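Issue: copy button drops trailing tokens. Both records pasted manually instead:
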Amino acid sequence: MESSLKSAALLEQMKLHLKTDAGKDITKKIGLVYQLNIAPKKIGVDEEIFVVDLKEGKVTKGPYEGKPDATFSFTDSDFLSIATGKMNPQMAFIRGAMKIKGSIGAAQKFTPDIFPKPSKM
């Protein structure tokens, strides 16, 4: 996945993680599709779109064909903070650091627990 975003490296790890037994458990448990709109600096500007498909256990670049269960928009640094557990997703949402479209129930299942634990980033 060609990208200038730091998040792309995490999503690349996620792709490998979903092929592991732990990743397959996540796919079974959650079974939802998330679209991530990640902007370098400002939400809505020059966003790169990734899809984390927890129905099929894969991560792809580009918009989802169909309707994702939830779509998130955030900046590169805020996404990394949330994914690594440094920022609470609820606080990010309240402060406007993260925007959500779609099912709030589905969005609540998108937690730092689904991401691989960072090794060296």
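Record 2 (pasted manually too):
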Amino acid sequence: MRERVVRVQGQDEMAMKLLFWELEQHLKSSSGASVVAIDNKIEQAMDLVKSHLMYAVREEVEVLKEQIKELIERNSQLEQENSLLKTLASPEQMAQFQAQTQTGSPPTSTQPPAQAPALPPTQPQPSHNSGPSA
């Protein structure tokens, strides 16, 4: 679809250049009697600009409508997911979440951190210094 827009824009641009070239030629060779012809060329150019802008706006509106539709669908999915998570959360988790949202702190994991394997306690090594420390 964007390719069609580019093609139409290219055609409009060529037509616009032709109209302005013709207008320029009329201005160079015109007398007071050709003012009506110049006005007609200006009106044609303005109509071409208007139709080009209207086409571009319509294309953009269609794109935005599609994006809005996708966002509404995504919002609906997220609302369903949120509802499900609320029903599955324990009262303690909900209270913790509400407290975090009120204070504005980032959410923390409700699961305890993984325990590192227990290492045997280290024995202090005897010092082999033979003299007093300076």
